[in-house]
Amino acid sequence: MAEKIRSGEVIFRANETKILRKIYLNAQGGRPVESMWFGDDVGTTREASQELKEIFGGLSPFGTPKPTRLIRRIIDITCDKSDIILDFFGGSGTTAHAVLAKNAEDEGNRRFILVSNSEATKDEPEKNICRDICAERVRRVIQGYVANNGEKTAGLGGDFAYLKTTRIQPGKLLEIQHSQVWTTLQLAKLDSVLPYADEPFQWAGNGDSAICYVPRFSKKIVTALRRKMKESAEVAVFSWQPQTLRQHVRDAHVTHFPVSETLTRWFGLNLTLTPA
After folding, report:
1. Across the chain, where does the E strand assignment appear?
2. Average pLDDT rounded to a whole number, residues 62-83
3. The model's pTM
4. Which of 10, 50, 89, 165 gives 4 a disulfide partner, CB atoms 3.0 to 4.6 angstroms apart?
5. 191 alpha carbon, distance to own chain's centre
6. Among positive and negative, which fits the CA dihedral 161, 190, 179, 164?
7. Cα(202)–Cα(239) distance, rounded to whole angstroms?
8. What is the pLDDT of residues 1-60, one digit of tens each?
9. What is the share, in percent, of the chain residues with pLDDT greater than 90?
């Protein structure tokens, strides 16, 4: 420390309340820049609890919230204006609040994805922090709210969707709906998701590669299916009757996969797919 002070890399503020350390990029050797964050700069748990009290009318419904200023600082040093910020432990919704605040501040187009469980227990089976705390907080900061002291806080604007996943019980994996199969296939293979259509088969992709899902095979769809296969250089076909379908569609650029085996392997321990 004495050496750093002598070299000027560590300095003190005039009132000696804070230490500042100078770090030069050319001396980092690829390491990320270090930082010391203090409560005065990025907030404290007490401040975060006070934020929640104001949003929820005097009550803090979450025990260990993060201060919005902390997440905003992280966004400042890691994200561009159009990035997607993922928080897999959504908690009280601080990350969404921070993203909305930053967008309102600099007219950015950042988006957020928050994931959490309900934290329901046997003693509190109806508990749902996702719905009652996280989503409600996001809704209020978007629309605006009235604090416990009667002071109005303007909404930050923006929008969001609250989605609930469907739990599939063990042993019932192969009983899921065709629309769920199609969504799962796209999430695993593509960058976007198309809705399930009331058609003999589902198709997504481009001229280079595509995926196809055949819910129920029928000889009536063979002609249309073969015609569609010619639109892409490589096609992965998922069906419940791959051997039967393969007898009718044998093109070299088409690979057949059984849906049952595919789903079992994706959600099991063995992630290696074997063509049918």
Report:
1. 10-12, 19-21, 84-87, 111-114, 144-146, 152-154, 202-205, 210-214, 235-239, 254-258
2. 92
3. 0.62
4. 10
5. 13
6. negative
7. 11
8. 888 888 888 888 888 777 777 777 777 666 665 667 888 899 999 999 999 999 998 888
9. 63
Can you tell me the distance from the alpha carbon of 71 to that of 90, in angstroms, rounded to the nearest whole number? 12
Q: Amino acid letter at 171?
A: G
Nearest residue to 241 (alpha-carbon basis) of 263, 213, 265: 213
Q: What is the DSSP letter of 174?
A: G
C-alpha dihedral, 44 to 49 to 51 to 54, nearest 10°: -150
Residues in the chain, total? 276
The helix-helix angle for 135-143 and 94-106 (nearest 10°) equals 20
| Non-local CB neighbours of 38 within 8 Å, separated by 6+ positions | 18
Q: Label residue 30 exposed, middle or buried (CB < 10 Å: 0-12, 13-18, 19+).
A: exposed
Closest CA to 262 of 235, 246, 247, 240: 240
Whose tokens are 């996943």? That residue is: 165
Distance CA 114, CA 96 (A): 7
Residue type, 270: N
